[in-house]
Write a structure and sequence with these properties.
Blueprint: H1 2-11, H2 13-33, E1 45-52, H3 58-73, E2 79-87, E3 90-97, H4 104-119, E4 129-130, H5 157-173, E5 187-189, E6 197-199
Antiparallel strand pairs: 1-3, 1-4, 2-3, 5-6
Helix pairs in contact: 3-4
Length: 200
């Protein structure tokens, strides 16, 4: 068999050269046109409900925010799985839907349930919000704002939070491909709480 292939190739050089050039041309076309990712996106159909709270411990976040949100989301149609993470000042509930439901119907269902979930959360403890339409591989970077040694008295925790919200966040938001930037921690003032600072 191999002898016949070699014999055919020697006798039909032009055909072999044209065939090789065709394969090479198709390969070059594929490199420039076909989207190739270093890490394939294997994320399921999910929607995240994110709630930030100023000064609640992990146990309080789980009790007053994560648990009520999970209970509201449990009876949605097409839900395959609900998982959550409770941290100091942060609650993230991930609701996984069946693939055949699509992208926007789950978000509509979640939006309706967020209102009733908010009613079960004590006032001032945080308001649940839906995360952006991104995949599980979408969170690509975490950073902190810190003070250089020797400048500790110049910037307070509230100053750092203000710089994050009004300078760093605005500049990063203008970068192409950045969907959302979540601020977490620091000290900030809220009008509805009589201008009392909350730490997280």
């Amino acid at each position: 068999m191999l002898d016949k292939i070699l014999d055919f190739s020697i006798k039909n050089k032009l055909i072999v050269i044209l065939f090789t050039l065709t394969i090479a041309g198709f390969g070059l076309y594929s490199v420039y046109k076909i989207p190739v990712g270093a890490v394939p996106d294997i994320t399921n159909n999910q929607v995240q409900v994110i709630t930030t709270s100023g000064n609640l411990s992990t146990q309080e976040i789980e009790q007053f925010i994560t648990a009520p949100v999970e209970m509201e989301m449990a009876n949605l149609p097409g839900v395959e799985e609900i998982r959550s993470i409770s941290k100091f000042g942060l609650s993230v509930v991930t609701v996984v839907f069946k693939e055949n439901i699509g992208t926007y119907l789950p978000r509509q269902l979640i939006a309706e349930k967020i209102k009733s979930a908010s009613a079960n959360i004590p006032e001032g403890f945080g308001v649940p919000e839906m995360g952006p339409i991104t995949t599980g591989l979408g969170e690509i970077y975490q950073y902190t704002l810190d003070i250089k040694p020797g400048y500790e008295g110049k910037y307070s925790a509230m100053d750092l939070r203000t710089i994050q919200d009004w300078v760093v966040k605005r500049r990063l938001s203008g970068i192409n491909g950045v969907v959302e930037i979540n601020s977490w921690g620091g000290l900030f003032e809220t009008i509805r709480n009589s201008h009392k600072p909350y730490s997280s």
